[in-house]
Amino acid sequence: MSVLYLDFGNSRFKWRLSDGGITAQSYEGFDAWLHSLSGHGDLTAVVFASVLTERRQEGITEQLKSALSLPLQRCVVTSSALGVQCAYRDLDRLGIDRWLAVVAAWARYGEACAVVDAGTAATLDFVDVAGHHLGGYIVSGLTLALQGLLAGTDNIRPDPAGFESAALVPGVNTAEAIYHGALYSLVALIESSYQNLLKSFPQAKLILAGGDAALVGSHLYSQHELVEDLVFEGMQLLESAALLIDA
Fold first, then answer.
1. pLDDT for 128-148, tens place per residue?
2. What is the pLDDT of residue 146?
3. Cα three-residue angle 17-18-24, rounded to 5 degrees
4. Which residue ranges make up each domain of the chain?
């Protein structure tokens, strides 16, 4: 028997069955993917987290209910969970993906940490040694930073090699300068904010998740850990602690 876990992000959704592997898909293929699940007779429930607008999420929720006829529960931000105290006064303003990652990181390490989710948007959140969420930063992810620059300028052509060949050295042509600059900006933010955290908490961990985590991590000087399923770990933790709501 399996629980279906769903993470609805800005540009794509990810899913896993209980402790299985994680699969990422575009929203264009959501209907076909959902239809393929109708034959999974071992599914017992659906747990999801979403950063989509309420209107968009309601439509997806109705599709899930109609296609699967299973209990549907949603992850939400709470003032505290599993030893972590949320920094936000308005809990609705904190993205659930950030909260799940922070809760999972604290459960893993029980130590001060900087949690980076390098996706469409890049988020950085910080937790102190007592489990107090200290807040964080939200900046454009690598691709979004590139798209924003190209949308606001003329006569700049992207490099077909993309970020895979980018480095932290000055570019010697315009395309290199753009890619290297976007990469450098994100790496510099991670490094400087993590070093600031270490001043107060010398044992603090640096944890990377998200689609660009491996790429960004390869350019970091600071020691770090890549945890691909951090958000899904957070979902399962909230589920075990009965901190989900019915959708």
1. 999 999 999 999 999 888 888
2. 85
3. 40
4. 2-75, 80-229
Equal fold, 2-75 vs 80-229: yes
What would the two tokens of residue 96 be?
A: 């659930």
**pLDDT of amino acid 99:** 98
Question: Is the whole model's pTM more than 0.85, yes or no?
Answer: yes
For residue 72, the Cα-to-chain-centroid distance in whole angstroms is 21
Q: What are phi and psi of 43, to 5 degrees?
A: -75, 135
Query: Which residue is it, tokens 């980018």?
Result: 166
The answer to whether the beta carbons of residues 90 and 113 sit under 8 Å apart is: no
> Domain 80-229 adopts which CATH fold?
Nucleotidyltransferase; domain 5 (3.30.420)
- Mapped onto helix, strand or coil, the DSSP state of residue 4 is strand
The answer to whether 227 and 209 are in contact (CB under 8 A) is: yes
CA atoms within 13 A on the CB side of 229: 16
Which tokens hold the place of 235?
């979902």
Q: How far apart are CA 133 and CA 85, in angstroms?
A: 6
Q: Which residues are catalytic?
A: 97
Find out whether 113 and 184 touch, Cβ atoms under 8 Å: no
Contact 146, 182 (CB under 8 A): yes
Under CATH, to which class is 2-75 assigned? Answer: alpha beta
